[in-house]
Amino acid sequence: MINFGIKDIIDILIIALLLYYVYRMMKNSGTLSLFYGVLVFFVVWVLASEIFDMRLTGSILDKFMSIGLIILVIIFQDQIKRFLIDLGSQGRLKNFKRFFRHEKSDGEGHARVMAVVYACMSMSKSKTGALIVFQRKMPLTDYEKTGDIIDANVNVRLIENIFFKNSPLHDGAMIIAEHRIKSVGCILPVSHDMNIPKNLGLRHRAALGMSQATDAVCVIVSEETGGISVAKDGTITTRVSAPDLEHILSESLVEA
Fold first, then answer.
1. Among 8, 105, 130, 236, which is 20 to 30 Å from 218 by CA?
2. CA 119 – CA 71 distance, rounded (Å)
3. How confident is the model at residue 167, as a pLDDT?
4. What whole-number distance in Å separates Cα of residue 128 and Cα of residue 160?
5. What's the order of all strands across the beta sheet hosting 180-186?
């Protein structure tokens, strides 16, 4: 008779939660088909090794599993890092960090958001292309180093001047972290998702790629149409109004 107790239920729940999180992470990064492939391979390995006791097949698949895990870690190192950062930012650990960390006032944070909203509305009217990245939980230091570090206050005129068409820094992305403009002219990872509408350009693909690789929130102003879009958690929302932009940024930065 098979003994099935509380520990077995907890064991199953832990595996189910891990699989769900991996599924959601793969979906956001546009590699969901790879998740299904790995899942099928894992099921075949369990059936051959544990259930049917197929020694030859099981031993071969064991070798593939040991090598495959290393390969997956190398391929998905950014996603694994994001998982660990998200894990360390939850619950009591997050409250513990907030207790010892100096936080800016809500008023200052809202002023930063409104400066970006006003700048985006102004650039939208003049059809000035822009790409602004907001850091949340995951550090963006590696991406900041690809551009020019300026470490300046967030204000409307500075944002507009940086993305002005004749500015040497207008082609790259601006990264805002810790209530300051940290770097401009930054290079972001480009998404290769085939489901992106063809009318969206390189800025939109870079913003989506950044939202897939990190937990950052990216705001895009189209140079062709002047439309404002937001990329967050691996999805992109187009035709965003000023009130919606304010709401998305305020809500996302409070969560961080």
1. 105
2. 44
3. 81
4. 9
5. 148-153, 180-186, 173-177, 130-134, 217-221, 228-232, 235-237
Q: Tokens at residue 61, please?
A: 């698949």
How far, CA to CA in Å, does 83 sit from each of 18, 24, 101, 138, 150? 11, 11, 22, 10, 30
Q: pLDDT tens digits for 14-25?
A: 878 877 777 776
pLDDT at 92: 42
